Amino acid sequence: MLRQMNILHPWNLVFLIGFVVYFSIRHTFIKRTRDVPKADSRIDRLEKFLLFLMVPAILVLPFLYWFTPLLSFADYSLPLPVLLAGLVAMIASLWLFWRSHVDLGDNWSVSLEISEGHQIVSNGVYRSIRHPMYASIWLWGLAQGMLLENWLAGWAVIPVFALMYFLRTPKEEKLMCEHFGDSYRQYMNCLLYTSPSPRDRG
Predict the structure, then answer these.
(1) pLDDT tens across 54-66, in order?
(2) How far apart are the first and last CA of the chain?
(3) What is the pTM of this model?
(4) Mean pLDDT of the region 176-196
């Protein structure tokens, strides 16, 4: 019974609030871009599989940790400074995640797609971070590991997202080069290149 009330632990509640904010941001922009026509889509089996793998790491395991005793064998305790660092990482992740979506606007897609009438984004966080939305997810993974005191619920997102990142990013950058040519290649070579920078996904 006590293990089933794990969600009432203060740091778990902090993470749950961040969790709700995270998915609210994503849901808002999915709705905004749902009807935007796509000029090119590279959603293959690997892409679907990588997206599918993220579901247990980000969603299922935390809920099992909060509401069931199934993951109790992997519990551990963290000192307050680590928990506070997790809070800072979560706040930074949420801000960067939101800002990336805002800067992309209708150019954003959850997967490897190019929108019709796509305009290359060069403002906001895209002026200084090559893949800010991916950076926000790396931060989220760190926050999850430092706030959820369980090896599986806390840290599973890191290796799963690493697999997605390293398999997906080369395909994404190839797509960008095909559509945006030298503008994207120059952006890859020089982060602060003054011409328009590429879109991102995540």
Answers:
(1) 999 999 999 999 9
(2) 37
(3) 0.87
(4) 67
- Distance between CA atoms of 55 and 79, rounded to whole angstroms? 28
Q: Residues with Cβ < 8 Å from 76, sequence gap 6 or more?
A: 149, 150, 151
Tokens of 103: 């800067």
What are the residue boundaries of the structural domains of the chain, listed by start? 3-189
Structure tokens at 182: 């030298």
Query: Per-residue pLDDT averaged across 58-76, rounded?
Result: 93
Tell whether domain 3-189 is in CATH 1.20.120.1630. Answer: yes
Interatomic CA distance for residues 129 and 133, integer angstroms: 9
For residues 168 and 199, which has the higher predicted lDDT (pLDDT)? 168
| Identity at 160, one-letter amino acid code | V
Structure tokens at 167: 């398999």
Tokens, residue 65: 């940790």
